[in-house]
């Protein structure tokens, strides 16, 4: 009986190990799916902007979640030399429902919409003091309050600098000239080859014609000699 108990305990131990392994794999897969489809916030492919002092700028921000949202909280902050200044905040209850945005800055306006996953804002009449980093933050209750943020840099300038295109123009001109010369060289080469081929064909025709004339003249001379020979 002792051996039976020992065997049974070993089998039970293997089953427990298999169950633990199976549970671990399931948890890992669930965590993988959750992380892949997790909340993401983006401020665009080019997360910075140069704007003229006194103008109005758009600070873009969008969110995305593969499993949807529930009570999505978001806000905008301005990084004022390490001190975070809140510009606005709101909660989107579910997809398609517009949020009731609380704005804390007199020159900020919320222009986003939940229908487009857009939580962008406008900043009016910017000054040099508005220069710096703006942070868009979001947190999704449906993903166990998973959060994500993205920054956007605003550079306030007195005037937009003109881009010097002289070097670009020179490079394009040189490349265009090289391509043009290459094409011209190919055309000239083709014409020369065509001319030589035609000249060679003419020479061949002249040689053939000259050979035919010589043959005919030879036959005529032979006939004349035969006619002029006196009979014996």
From TrEMBL:
<feature type="transmembrane region" description="Helical">
    <location>
        <begin position="49"/>
        <end position="74"/>
    </location>
</feature>
<dbReference type="Pfam" id="PF07686">
    <property type="entry name" value="V-set"/>
</dbReference>
<dbReference type="GO" id="GO:0017080">
    <property type="term" value="F:sodium channel regulator activity"/>
</dbReference>
<dbReference type="InterPro" id="IPR013783">
    <property type="entry name" value="Ig-like_fold"/>
</dbReference>
<feature type="compositionally biased region" description="Basic and acidic residues">
    <location>
        <begin position="222"/>
        <end position="232"/>
    </location>
</feature>
<feature type="transmembrane region" description="Helical">
    <location>
        <begin position="170"/>
        <end position="197"/>
    </location>
</feature>
<dbReference type="InterPro" id="IPR036179">
    <property type="entry name" value="Ig-like_dom_sf"/>
</dbReference>
<dbReference type="GO" id="GO:0001518">
    <property type="term" value="C:voltage-gated sodium channel complex"/>
</dbReference>
<protein>
    <submittedName>
        <fullName>Sodium channel subunit beta-4-like</fullName>
    </submittedName>
</protein>
<dbReference type="InterPro" id="IPR007110">
    <property type="entry name" value="Ig-like_dom"/>
</dbReference>
<dbReference type="GO" id="GO:0060307">
    <property type="term" value="P:regulation of ventricular cardiac muscle cell membrane repolarization"/>
</dbReference>
<dbReference type="InterPro" id="IPR000920">
    <property type="entry name" value="Myelin_P0-rel"/>
</dbReference>
<keyword id="KW-0472">Membrane</keyword>
<dbReference type="InterPro" id="IPR013106">
    <property type="entry name" value="Ig_V-set"/>
</dbReference>
<feature type="compositionally biased region" description="Polar residues">
    <location>
        <begin position="209"/>
        <end position="218"/>
    </location>
</feature>
<keyword id="KW-0393">Immunoglobulin domain</keyword>
<dbReference type="GO" id="GO:0086002">
    <property type="term" value="P:cardiac muscle cell action potential involved in contraction"/>
</dbReference>
<dbReference type="GO" id="GO:0044325">
    <property type="term" value="F:transmembrane transporter binding"/>
</dbReference>
<feature type="domain" description="Ig-like">
    <location>
        <begin position="54"/>
        <end position="153"/>
    </location>
</feature>
<feature type="transmembrane region" description="Helical">
    <location>
        <begin position="20"/>
        <end position="37"/>
    </location>
</feature>
<keyword id="KW-0325">Glycoprotein</keyword>
<keyword id="KW-0812">Transmembrane</keyword>
<feature type="region of interest" description="Disordered">
    <location>
        <begin position="207"/>
        <end position="232"/>
    </location>
</feature>
<keyword id="KW-1133">Transmembrane helix</keyword>
<keyword id="KW-1015">Disulfide bond</keyword>
<dbReference type="InterPro" id="IPR003599">
    <property type="entry name" value="Ig_sub"/>
</dbReference>
<keyword id="KW-0732">Signal</keyword>
């Amino acid at each position: 009986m002792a051996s039976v108990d020992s065997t049974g305990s070993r089998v039970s131990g293997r089953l427990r190990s298999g169950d633990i392994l199976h549970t671990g794999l399931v948890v890992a897969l669930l965590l993988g799916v959750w992380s892949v489809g997790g909340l993401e916030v983006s401020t665009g492919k080019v997360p910075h902007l140069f704007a003229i002092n006194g103008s109005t700028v758009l600070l873009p921000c969008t969110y995305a979640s593969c499993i949807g949202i529930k009570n999505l909280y978001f806000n905008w902050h301005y990084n004022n030399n390490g001190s975070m200044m809140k510009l606005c905040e709101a909660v989107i209850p579910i997809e398609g429902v517009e949020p009731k945005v609380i704005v804390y800055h007199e020159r900020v306006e919320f222009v986003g919409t939940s229908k487009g996953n857009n939580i962008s804002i406008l900043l009016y009449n910017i000054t040099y003091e508005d220069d710096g980093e703006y942070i868009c933050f979001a947190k999704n209750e449906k993903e166990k309050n998973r959060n994500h943020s993205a920054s956007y840099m605003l550079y306030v300038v007195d005037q937009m600098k003109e881009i010097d295109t002289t070097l670009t123009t020179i490079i394009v001109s040189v490349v265009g000239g090289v391509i043009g010369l290459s094409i011209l060289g190919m055309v000239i080469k083709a014409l020369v080859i065509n001319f030589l081929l035609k000249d060679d064909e003419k020479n061949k025709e002249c040689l053939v014609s000259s050979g035919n004339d010589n043959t005919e003249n030879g036959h005529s001379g032979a006939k004349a000699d035969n006619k002029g020979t006196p009979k014996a």
